Amino acid sequence: MDFNRIVSELDAEIARLQHIRSALTAGAGTSTATSSVASTALAKKSGRGRPKGSKNAPKPGAAKVAQVAAPKPVAAKAAKSAGKRKLSPEGRKRIAEAMKRRWAERRKETAKK
């Protein structure tokens, strides 16, 4: 493509978009001052994640809703009370031996090279 043709197409597109923007702002009855205020408000927005100082405090009335809620099924209650799963010493030993075998194989491969 010709460089001058690309530049002229971009200029035409910019002019078309500016014309559309002016028509929209005139039709909506808004001024450019309000759009600049909105753009600065968006620029001041903080980064991603939870805002500083926010807490996991319950909302007012949440305690009442929790009391009124239907009781949970027994199966879900039993699963929750089981707690964290623990690894037996035998299982830990099997995993350690398997990892040592794996590392030995890796050492052999690197020694061959």
From TrEMBL:
Composition bias type Basic and acidic residues, residue spans: 87-113
Ranges where the record places region Disordered: 25-113
Compositional bias segments (type: Low complexity): 25-44, 54-81
Protein name: Type IV secretory pathway TrbL component
Organism annotation: Granulicella mallensis
Species lineage: Bacteria, Pseudomonadati, Acidobacteriota, Terriglobia, Terriglobales
